[in-house]
Design goal:
The chain is built from 26 helices and 15 strands. The chain has 595 residues and is α+β, with helices and mostly antiparallel strands.
Length: 595
């Protein structure tokens, strides 16, 4: 096949001649030819190697009018042309070193004719012999060489994942992706929306990434759709279509310390900056699912496994360090998965998803997060408090607290001493920290109650007295109030939350009976007593797997429910006491249950 070279360093074939893939020199597909597998789903990637106008249209947003001499100079200066490296069409394996050297010598010996002369050269007729200088171009192998300086995304060459699986993408999202495609850009859905669609869950937010820069994205959509640009400095634009806010951003390799994104040109570069493999599954309506890090294996309808990208590599480094196979000076002192270092919020995100029952954490990823818990100190305190509130309210909050102890101790250092603290009691089956975590998990999802349970035993280690076979903790409630007050101030809790939490810690061991119940209610208010009963219910149940503890816990929760009914707005006489009739019913219930 005869070729000609132009100033764009792209190899073009004559207009009417087919190449080995069924394309003619102008980049158009012949009717009989089939699209090669390595270019499946994106004809533009192949066409750009033969058509310079298509390449510039796709990569830099040129229109054909931009090449006319009478085009406005301002319009021409929108984008700068950047010449691409020459496309190598030979195979590295099939060409020996000697043959390559001969080709280089021939290339140096024979000067390259001008473009107009090459265009006038006629293609040799069928059967006519070809000169040796042209022979290397005639014997192009079936597969293109992998030695390309900037290869197209592997999705176009060796698709990974289920390329035949079609996801149910809403029409407004498809319209946004089609408009990008019409301007010769390649767009993918990425992130949580992909795996939620994959398992058939409802999706609220859609994120699209593409190979267009923010100013170009804005130029494409602003004439047709409403576009929000408040996050454009981070490279993100929100396209409003069909009542949906659809995020569109360029491929980004990372975000630097100042919060500015570093753009890249391929989906692979964008994927490798992400934290977990489940986030690296992308979807394009034409090419299907692209899964470069086997993220689909971590996604099921029941639960997602959060596994850091390339965790095997970092796990191997730690094994080599511990085994002594390599000298310690050759290995880093501490293994930190880069995505955690660049984005510490991902650690709290993983903890939150575990607490909500949405995900499990792979063993090494979990270990690396705990080993590098200090990274969360780079997060703003109010942001930490916002994450931790969601963690405490999760239905599997106990699992999150038990599996991420180092994160908890960074947020509340006062709890670190509890980790292996043995209470030496026949009534306490667990270590002090495990009891605390279980108590939080047993409580109703009330933020103030769970925060009080997290800190209710803070004073125990300071007040512990070893009596040989057992321990006593006299005055630990009062000591706990002091320590918890300092911890809550550092944590940034508001005044009302602090007051409620300290009240429950102070009285968490008080035994409420039918005789003193009314006095408590009049002194502190029915609502405070209700919260205290809920706290005591969870605290008792978390002491041990004892049937009596579970029964008492259930009764205390029932009493709290009775108070809620008695203090309903239509039955409350004052702000601090409920109706006498309602509270008498509660004391009767306490008497029947032996409380």
């Amino acid at each position: 096949m005869a070729h000609r070279e132009i100033g764009l360093d792209l190899v073009l074939s004559d207009d009417n001649e087919e190449d080995d893939y069924g394309y003619t020199g102008n980049g158009r597909k012949n009717k009989e030819g089939d699209l090669p597998k390595h270019l499946s789903g994106d004809q533009h990637a192949y066409k750009s190697a033969f058509d310079p106008y298509a390449y510039l249209n796709r990569e830099y947003g040129y229109d054909e009018d931009d090449y006319d001499d009478d085009t406005d100079e301002d319009e021409k200066s929108i984008h700068k042309y950047i010449a691409e490296e020459p496309i190598i069409t030979g195979s590295a394996e099939s060409t020996s070193a000697e043959t390559k050297a001969e080709q280089v010598q021939d290339h140096e010996a024979v000067p390259e004719p001008p473009m107009q002369d090459m265009a006038e050269q006629e293609e040799p007729a069928a059967g006519q012999p070809v000169s040796e200088a042209a022979e290397p171009e005639k014997t192009a192998p079936e597969q293109p060489a992998p030695e390309v300086n900037e290869p197209e995304p592997p999705a176009m060459e060796t698709p990974k994942g289920d390329s035949s699986r079609k996801l149910d993408v809403p029409k407004p999202v498809l319209e946004v992706m089609e408009l990008l495609k019409a301007h010769y850009y390649t767009a993918y859905l990425v992130g949580e929306c992909v795996y939620l669609m994959y398992i058939g869950e409802r999706v609220m937010d859609f994120d699209i990434v593409c190979n267009a820069e923010p100013d170009r994205i804005l130029a494409i959509f602003e004439k047709t759709f409403k576009v929000r640009t408040d996050q454009i400095e981070r490279g993100e634009l929100i396209i409003i279509n069909g009542g949906m806010g659809i995020s569109v951003s360029p491929f980004r390799s990372r975000i630097d310390g100042s919060g500015k994104p570093i753009y890249c040109r391929t989906i692979d570069e964008d994927m490798c900056r992400r934290t977990f493999t489940s986030e690296t599954v992308a979807y394009n309506p034409d090419s299907g699912i692209y899964d470069p890090y086997d993220g689909l294996s971590c996604i099921t309808a029941e639960k997602t496994v959060l596994k850091a990208i390339d965790e095997e590599k970092y796990e191997e480094i730690e094994r080599e360090r511990s085994s002594g196979k390599r000298k310690k000076r050759e290995l880093p002192e501490k293994t930190v998965i880069p995505s955690f270092q660049e984005n510490p919020e991902s650690i709290l995100t993983a903890m939150m998803k575990l607490s909500r029952g949405e995900a499990e954490i792979s063993s090494y990823t979990l270990k690396n997060m705990n080993d590098n818990a200090g990274l969360i100190e780079r997060i703003m305190p109010d942001e930490i408090a916002r994450y931790f509130r969601r963690i405490l309210l999760g239905r599997q909050a106990a699992d999150a607290l038990l599996q991420f102890p180092e994160i908890v101790f960074r947020i509340f250092p006062v709890l670190r001493i509890q980790q292996n603290f043995d209470q030496k009691s026949d009534y306490q089956e667990y270590t002090l920290y495990e009891h605390t975590a279980r108590a939080v998990g047993y409580a109703v999802p009330d933020y103030q109650v769970r925060l009080a349970l997290l800190l209710h035993a803070a004073g125990k280690p300071d007040c512990a007295a070893d009596r040989g076979d057992y321990m006593t903790f006299y005055g630990h409630a009062e000591r706990g109030v002091m320590l918890a007050g300092d911890a809550l101030e550092e944590y940034g809790a508001d005044t009302r939350t602090t007051e409620k939490v300290l009240f429950m810690i102070k009285h968490h061991d008080d035994h409420i009976t039918p005789d003193n119940f009314m006095g408590f209610a009049e002194m502190y208010g029915a609502e405070d007593i209700r919260l205290l009963l809920l706290m005591q219910s969870a605290n008792i149940r978390a002491k041990s797997r004892d049937e009596l503890n579970e029964r008492v816990s259930a009764v205390l929760r029932q009493l709290a429910d009775q108070i809620s009914a008695a203090t309903a707005p239509s039955r409350v006489r004052t702000k601090r006491t409920a109706t006498i009739e309602g509270l008498r019913g509660i004391t009767d219930l306490m008497n029947r249950n032996g409380i």
